[in-house]
Amino acid sequence: MRRNVKISPFKNTVMKMSLFKSLSLLGLTILLFVACEDSKDASETKPNILYIMTDDHGYQAISAYSNQLVQTPNLDRLANEGVIFRNSFVTNSICGPSRAVMLTGKHSHANGMINNSTEFDGTQQTFPKLLQKAGYQTAIVGKWHLKSDPTGFDYWNILPGQGQYYNPDFIEMGEKKQIEGYATTITTDLALSWLDRRNSEKPFCLLLHHKAPHRTWEPDTAHLAEFLSKQFPVPENFFDQYEDRQAAAEQKMSVRASDMDVQYDLKMQDDEGRIVSRFGKMDHTARMNAAQKKAWKNHYDPITKKFIEDNLSGDELYLWKLQRYLQDYLACIHSVDENVGRVLDYLENNGLKENTIVVYTSDQGFYLGEHGWFDKRFMYEESLRTPLMMWLPTGYGRRGDVNQLIQNIDYAPTFLDMVGVQIPEEMHGKSMKSLLIGKGETAKWRDAIYYHYYEFPNEHMVKKHYGVRTDRYKLIHFYDDIDVWELYDLKNDPNEMHNIYQDQQNEDLIKNLKKRLKELQEEYHDTTLPQEDL
């Protein structure tokens, strides 16, 4: 028999409140569970990696480092919103070997590519291969310059050899194609196209490698006259006479000599034969279409005409060559900066910025008239030091300057560490992750870097040498056909004009630096030394 139970209004209210509390607690529990799951997913999401590298971009030509030459607002975004490394160096200042070091995290003698004549062994371990195994999509677009085909990449589309600036050939997964346009813009187009069609469910690692601003510094036709009316400051040691520096005196990379060729490098091409190149007859416009040729001739013909009329010689000629060189070099940088801006905008507009490590660097530094030079190779600062800036993903609090001694052997272990992949013991580099967390300076970091350059004899005739650099001192040994030591106090002589190796007061300093040098050679197992040093 069913009974009707009458509930008082007060009791009914209490029951309703109890039910409301129960439902509220249940809802709160569900919300907390979902929030925790979202938080868990966010923390476990592996960051993407976008590694942008140019060829021969001196740090002096980035306004975040120096505003003396050019403004680079898009590159500066990386420094202003992320970190900028003030003491970033290479291990061997030459194109192919630097790229091999970056991939393997090992010095040149260990990865086998000691100079541009050797071929990279693509069977060895690289960080893209390890990222592939960890579920990453990997791609490289642009300059490769390692002779063997890329390995460890799901997609590759590379310039053959040094590549061309205008209407360049690209090799896409083994198939060569010519693409009309300017190399810096095309390389960026290809990279963004790959980002558009990648599998968005997987993290990615994209290596975007520009040819620019490599010799012969051919600007986009849109920027040929970008710096035509600008007068650039002349480095204070442009007229260096190389006292007590034999290797510096015997190089062949001087703006103040035929090493910098008026026709080949500076585009002074005269149909009447009044300008002769040591490289023989050449035509910079050979690959260009009609519109590109017209723009080129409209720009360079008047400059050539005036150059012939002025008939410069001596210091006037050298200073003219420096300005002409910088006009073209920096116009190439202008295109790089524009295209880096396109990439950064893409990441922001597609919601990728917060979970992407963005790196900008160069394969080495470059001389922009310092010591009277162009090119790289020496262990002196302008070619040893390289730009390095990063946007960091969520969770990395470091911003602004990083002052520790960094080398390009550190890139591979850093990427692996930041995505949670174990670093192979064979890698020589150190992970920079601890420097980027943002919880204060790391107490223990390297106190010195090791350098070894091998490519002699070659066109630029820079002697073989190795050395050690600390935060203040640099000790270099030039060997092979000479046996010369050099010592520099970078605090008192930042331009490296005074070799103080022979000063008796430096005996203890030299002894300690040689000891540290030997320790680094043993640590990295470098046996490619002159016999007397083994």
Strand and helix map with partners:
Elements: H1 9-44, E1 48-54, H2 73-81, E2 83-85, E3 88-89, H3 95-104, H4 108-111, H5 127-133, E4 137-143, E5 155-159, E6 169-172, E7 175-178, H6 183-197, E8 204-209, H7 246-249, H8 290-310, H9 314-349, E9 356-362, H10 381-384, E10 388-391, E11 400-402, E12 406-407, H11 411-418, H12 433-436, E13 449-453, E14 464-469, E15 473-479, E16 484-489, H13 507-523
Parallel strand pairs: 1-8, 1-9, 2-11, 3-12, 4-5, 4-8
Antiparallel strand pairs: 2-10, 5-6, 6-7, 9-10, 13-14, 14-15, 15-16
Feature tags:
534 residues; alpha/beta; Alkaline Phosphatase, subunit A; 10-stranded mixed sheet; 4-stranded antiparallel sheet; 33% helix; 15% strand; globular; disordered N terminus
Question: In a few lines, what is going on in this structure?
Answer:
With 534 residues, the protein is of the alpha/beta class. It is 33% helix and 15% strand. It has helices at 9-44, 73-81, 95-104, 108-111, 127-133, 183-197, 246-249, 290-310, 314-349, 381-384, 411-418, 433-436, 507-523; strands spanning 48-54, 83-85, 88-89, 137-143, 155-159, 169-172, 175-178, 204-209, 356-362, 388-391, 400-402, 406-407, 449-453, 464-469, 473-479, 484-489.
